[in-house]
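Many introductory courses stop at the sequence. We go one step further.
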Amino acid sequence: MSSVLKTCLLASNQIAVLRQLVRTVFVSQRTPLPGNTLCRFRHIECKSIRHVHASVHRKFTPRRALLYVPGDDERKLSKAASLDVDCVVMDCEDGVALSRKVAARETISKILNSGTAKFGRSECAVRVNPVISMVTHEDLTVMLSGPSLPQCVVLPKVDTPGDIQIFSSELKSALQGKNIQDKLNLIIQTESAIGLLNVQAICEQATEISKDSPFTLEGIIFGSDDFCADIGATRTEGAEELIYARQKIVVVAKAYGIQAIDMVHINFKDLESLRNQSLQGARMGFTGKQVIHPAQVPVVQEAFLPSREKLEWATQLIKAFEEHQKSDKGAFVFRGSMIDMPSLLQAKNIVELDKAVKESNSHM
């Protein structure tokens, strides 16, 4: 076994790490070792190993609801800062008219640096215009000009890996001369057919570039309405036309250890339909959902929070597993169900989410 693989396996007890490592190798021969490890991998894709470990050790930031607020409306921005929402996105893109882009940049910069808006536990994010608009650099230069920076940047309409390269260059330029303690979080938006086809390559590029850039890739947002328009699909209440796209977003996001943010529910007055769609998204593997109205926030955040019953199940399963480990046996039965490592990973994810939300709430 190579020293690189030994280091990776010894560094973490997470079964997810091992499973993803196995996917990146070509196995020529398997020989059992103590502890049932695998040996004699012919080739190891070291980049994927580093990606897995980066995601394992990254602090989880809850983003059950991402609330978009027009960047040119100071009143709404100040109000949003006081809401109990996981992430406030001050928008300079779709939520702002072309004639108001300059005003939006300046207003967002003012909100960030005046101290009039206290975001509390909410993650403070800005959404810039896409690279193709040719004004991303102006957005970044103005909004990041002051001493107070947002925690996160949302980059819309990412269609190719080249978009990430351009964004990285423009972000470096906008931050030149600043002493940044922590990298900015980056969330990309997939909103077209070509963007969906390229989403894996885009994540690969962003992960590689982030090593020498002032950002860390944190998630993928699915822009359903632009996507439907691009492929000529008709939106339906059940969203059957979007199943493939949503599943692919989840799969790629989880493969890179980042978050998957589901589509907007346009009818903000229909809270029951919103709740059903949110629960569906949570079952599919999404970690959060975009919202466009404050009334949607509590419904969405509740849907993406584990229930008391689910949390109790996960907590007790982990406890039972730890006791079972002392017997040096594999799978075991818990409450009538056969439990193996994937079940344990699911339980740990539930407990981790609950812990992250409680820690976030304690910072209010």
